[in-house]
Amino acid sequence: MGHLDKICKVLLATGLMVGYAYTIEYFTAWYSGKVIPYESFIFKARAGGQYAWGYWIMFCCNVFVPQVFWFKKMRSNLVVMFIVSILLSTLVCGLECFVIVVTSLAIRFYLPSSWDYFSPNILGRLHICWNIWFVLHHVHAVFFKICPNGCCF
Fold first, then answer.
1. Distance from the CA of 84 to the CA of which of 11, 31, 38, 127 falls in 20 to 30 A?
2. d(CA 87, CA 90)
3. Residue from 4, 3, 141, 2 nearest 82 by CA
C-alpha cells in the first residue's frame, strides 16, 4: 500500500501543477489582452463559448478531483483511488483533446465546419465506444480472472 500512497501524492502534486498552469493561462490571456487580442479571444471562447461545458468539466476534474488525496483515509481507500484514476484517465484525457481540437476549430468563422455545433461522426462515436470498451475490459480483467488457474503460465 505504500507505493499506492506515493502514487496518490504524485497525482495530488500533478493536480496542483495543472491548476497552476490553468491559472497562468488565464493570467497570460488577461495580461496580453490589448497587445495580443487573439490570446484573450481564445481563452474567452474556451471558457465561455459554446463548448464551455467541456472546458469547465476538464478544469474541475483536473484540479479539484485530485484534492481528495490530501486526506490519508482517501489515499488508502482503493475504491476512491479507482474512481479518481478512471475520471482522470478517461474523462479528462478525452476532454483535453476535445477542448484543444474542437474549440480551436470552432472559433474560426471562415471554416464551414464551424458554422454549426460539433457532433461526432461515426468514426468519432466508434472511438468513444472503443475507449469505453477498453476501460471496461481492463476493469473486468482486474476484478475477474481472464483465464482459469490451470491454463495460465
1. 127
2. 6
3. 4
